[in-house]
Each structure stands twice: as C-alpha cells, then as structure tokens.
Amino acid sequence: MQSLSYGVFGGTFDPPHYGHLALAETARVQLGLARVIFVPAGLPPHKRNGRLSSPEHRAAMVQAAIADNPSFILSRVDIDRPGPHYTVEMLRRLREQFSDVTAWYFLMGEDSLHDLPHWYEPKSVLRQASLAVMHRHGKPVQLDVWRERLPELEGKLVWLDVPPVNFSATILRRRVREGLPLRYLVPTAVAEYIGNHRLYDGL
Ligand code: ATP
To answer: In angstroms, rounded to a whole number, what is the distance separating the alpha carbons of residues 66 and 27?
Structure first.
C-alpha cells in the first residue's frame, strides 16, 4: 500500500491567524503531509463559554484563511455533531472518511500538549495518530513525567520546526476591541470577514 499522510489541526480558530497557518504549512512540508485538515471546534466545554463566535463564523473564517492553499481543507466533523467533542472520536470519524490515509498526525502548539494526559482517552488518541507539536513560549512540557504516565507517547511525538509567531487569537480579539488593525496578522479575507460581521466588537 502506498503511504499517504494527513495532518489534523483542531482549534477554536476564533479567529484563525498566521500562527496557525505557519504551523500547518511547516507540518505539511516537514512531515510530507498530502493534506492538513482544519477542524474548528464545536462548543468546547473549557473555552470562553458563551463568548465563542458561532461555529458558522469560525468555519467561514477558516475557509477564507485556507482558500489559497490546495493542501489545506476544512472539516465540519466537530461542528455538525452534538458534543462532547472528544479528539479520539473526531480522529475515528476522519479515519473512516479518509480510509486510504496510512499515517495521521495531530498538530498542536505546546500549550495544548500540556493538557494531553487530561484528554479523554489519550491512549486511544495516540494509537490513532502521532502528535506533531510546535514549541511555544511559556512553561515547557515535562516530557519525562508525561512519558511515565503515558508510555504510549514514546515514538509518537514529533517536534515541528516552526518560526515562532508569538500571538494568539485572544490578542487579536483584544486588538479588534481596541480598534487596532489585524492587517498582516491574519489573511486579508479573514480581516474583512471580521469587519463585515462585526465580530469581537462587543467582547
Ligand atoms: P485563543 O487565544 O483563543 O486560546 P489560539 O490562538 O491559541 O486561541 P486555538 O484555536 O485555541 O488558537 O489553537 C489551536 C491550536 O493552534 C492550538 O494547538 C494552539 O497551540 C495552536 N496555536 C495557537 N496560536 C499559535 C501560534 N501563534 N503559533 C503556533 N500555534 C498556535
């Protein structure tokens, strides 16, 4: 069987920005991924409950952000089903949908890796996909501790060599509130979408 690798990049993407895109494109090149699937979260229990832009807005912004990259695609797998939206189930569904894919990588920043042992069924996540992680500033993950608690991590972790983009969507939402531009921080189409729909103004 010919090898075919896909990446999965989950996030709230409220809004998607160049940090996300740089991570995804680096992973594509470094890991030889045929596709990176962006998966906007449904309604994550731990994130800004009630203050998250609607799934439709976030999906539309991701679509606008990735439109010029033929290797990037959007999946509504977590938007079109009721929660809770566990990664393990999202991966299972994507693997079913793209059954010819032979290797899966779950992409994330190091801040998300911190939470891994608290994910629902982390062992099963690691059976389905390797983790492709980008270092981010802040507290480094204590991998020795993780490996002890989660031996399945061995051989399943790849570090991505991404030039750091040190801002998050939180900072961009704050900029909108403060009337500051998003130009050069998000793709033009995303900035236009935010402006047209007056997202974040009142947050
Ligand atoms: P928020 O500030 O709302 O928490 P965020 O910018 O961190 O948002 P998310 O949608 O929560 O974005 O994150 C999706 C994934 O993207 C996570 O794995 C996160 O680590 C990663 N990520 C976020 N910002 C960056 C960045 N600047 N560079 C690389 N990866 C990033």
So the answer is: 15
pTM over 0.90: yes
Our answer on whether the CB atom of 185 is closer than 6 Å to any ligand 1 atom is: no
Q: Is position 65 within any domain?
A: yes
- For ligand 1, whether the C-beta of 16 sits within 6 Å is no
- What would the pLDDT profile of 117-141 be if each residue is shown by its tens digit? 788 999 999 999 999 999 887 777 8
Atom of ligand 1 nearest to the CA of 18: 27
The tally of domains found in the chain comes to 1
- Residue 173 CA, ligand 1 centroid: distance in Å: 13
Q: How many beta carbons lie within 10 A of that of residue 109, not counting itself?
A: 20
Which pLDDT does position 190 carry in this prediction?
98
Q: Is 42 in the pocket of ligand 1 (CB under 6 A)?
A: no
Least confident span in 33-42, 82-91, 131-140 = 131-140
Residue 81 maps to which CATH number?
3.40.50.620
Strands 35-40, 5-11: pairing kind:
parallel
Residue 105 domain-assigned?
yes
Question: Is 203 among the domain residues?
Answer: no
CA gap 54, 50 in Å, rounded = 9
